[in-house]
Amino acid sequence: MFWQVEELEVKLLDRTREVERLRSELGATDLEKQLELLVVENEQLKQQLKSWRCLEPHNIDAAAKTCNCSHCPYSQDAEKMRRELLHSKSQSQQRERSLADLEQDMPRKSPRVDSLMWQLHDSTHQQEDYGQWQGEAEHKPTLRSKQCEQELARQGAAPPRVEFVTQTVKADPTDSHRALAEVQTKNVALQEQVSGQRQLLRELQTQLHESQRNCAQLRTQVRVCDLGAPKSLNTYINTCFQILVYEEELQRAQGQLEVEMQNLEEEKNKVIEEAFMRAESQMKAVHENLAGVRINLMSLQPALRTLTCDYNSLKRQVQHFPYMLDKAITEAKHEICQVISEVSSTNQELLLKYKKEMNLRKKCHNELVRLKGNIRVFCRVRPISQDEKDAADARILLSFDSDDDSILYLSSKGKVMTFELDKVFPPQATQEEVFKEVQSLVTSCIDGYNVCIFAYGQTGSGKTYTMEGETDNPGINQRALHLLFSEVREKAPDWNYKIKVSMVEIYNETLRNLLSESSSAKLDIRMKPDGSGQLYVPELTEFPVQSLVDIKQVFELGRMNRATACTNLNEHSSRSHALLIITVCGLNITTGDRTQGKLNLVDLAGSERISKSGAEGTRLREAQCINKSLAALGDVINALRSKHPHVPFRNSRLTYLLQDSLSGDSKTLMMVQVSPSPSNTSESLCSLKFAQRVRSLELSSASAASRKHENLSTPSSPTHDHTEVDSPPVTPIPLPISRASSTVHKVEESVYRNF
Ligand SMILES: Nc1ncnc2c1ncn2[C@@H]1O[C@H](COP(=O)(O)OP(=O)(O)OP(=O)(O)O)[C@@H](O)[C@H]1O
């Protein structure tokens, strides 16, 4: 029995160890199955114990029965054993209850095992996450360092600028420090996680120790039970032995768990160490970058200092700039004033020189005009018309000298006569060419001269064409106004000019204002009441003109007024004198000098002989008036050329009106118009003889005294008005004018014969 009890004790001890091991291994992941197996085996052991219990009383009773003697030492032993057995039974029941309690306690412990398993799982994940994070943490600084390197390379390539360098130097250390701080923060977090894991591990160890303590208590209890257990309970001992086996297995599993935990701990430490190593190497790289940045910064500092110096000097310059600018402006102003004063003095000198030159030029011009004669004679031959070409007696009467533009040849009655004038314009001469020769006279009216330009010739010889021209090819009138405008504009800075225009028609010795509202208004010529002896025409319209539009308006109005007074304008224009009077008043703004010149542009009436035209009645009257005025004009020109003290201006309305423009320093141009038609030969001959005579008289005016004297002895023109107070007998120019009576015819013939 004793050996059975000992055996039972050994089994119980083993069982206790096994239970203790199992208890200590609670919480391990893969021990659940072992625990189940142990529970199953435990059940089997219980079954064996039950069967053993069933057998044991019976054996004991049998033994008691076989040994019924009270004196038998065996019976006493048996009694004792029976008591011990009962005690053991009770203890065994207690142990069963303890085991049942343990079994009941097992499901309660299972959630704890589960939670420990989940914690272990989470720890493993955290370690994995930590490893991943370590990889990211390792990758981020690398990226940042690359960015830093790229940024540094870019800064190196960029031109050194103060602002840019400053910004770059400031930016990189900040970023590196920030990355370092982030890494350090993450390291701290990892440290915290590791410390948490360690804390968890410590808790698990504490729980393990508690479980071991519980197991030890249980073992003590079992040992106590074993001490009182009967040796006969072999099954129970076997069960205890199995329990001890299980406890050993549990212990082994615990050992494995500890090894695994240690491995995990080592792995964790290793991972942490590697992470630290990587972080340190990254930190080192960052520090190296930082050092490189610092070196760059150090190398850039001199440039920065230079730039700062430059900037400061520039700043100083900018600060001083207003003062310097003011100073420079003042100096510039001073210099400019000096230059202006120098220029103005030079200008004054030049102005004086210019004035001297102008006066000289004027004098020269006047001298030239004087040498040429104040009265100049031009001749213009109009082109032959188609009718004239087609005529039966078409011949070429007029010819020109290609080398001398002042010579004209006329073939008449088999003789070739030569006429020398100031200028001869052939038929192909343009309006521009003609005007070019007269423009000096036109501009002299700006200088204050009075100028008269007459177009003289028989009807149809081209007087109106030369003076008025055509719409698209204007004559002297319009061109003269254009020239005056341009000349006045040129002188505008110094001179202020006003140009006024009047248009007058003289028909049958009647003066008509062509620019008035009523075209039939007749004008009179009167002496100025101021005693100056100058003439004026009251109510004569003076139209101020400033532009070409004004000129057009004036000409349009004059043409309209002229047309309304007659039935046939062409015929009427042939029988009347048309005067365009241009007055140019100038005021010198600086000197205050004043000038007043007058340009008279006269389209005379036709000069054909009445004897040829055979006019009667109204025509005769018109012809007489025309002849009278033309003869008067001839007388006046003759008197002027011969420097006669008395000039018979009052002999006609024409000469009376032009008195102030024909006397004194005034300049006169006679444009003799000639028709090339053979049918007009005699008229052309008369006109040319007249022109020749006028010119020869003018050129010989230097020796005119003697001739004047001679001329004075010749009879005056029959048309000369001897009744005029101021018209002493003068030698008239033998104008080829018509005569209204037979006596006139005779005189006319004698006049022509003189040529
Ligand atoms: N140089 C010229 N070139 C071209 N045509 C001309 C020229 N001269 C005159 N004519 C033409 O000859 C014709 C007569 O000219 P215009 O009327 O000017 O003569 P006139 O002497 O004024 O006559 P009137 O005394 O009757 O007024 C016109 O048709 C004109 O166009």
UniProtKB/TrEMBL annotation:
Coiled-coil regions, chain positions: 5-55, 187-274
Protein topology in the membrane: Peripheral membrane protein
Residue intervals of the Kinesin motor domain: 374-697
Top-level taxon of the source organism: Eukaryota
SMART domains named in the record: KISc
Biological process, per Gene Ontology: microtubule-based movement
Record protein name field: Kinesin-like protein
Organism the protein comes from: Cynoglossus semilaevis
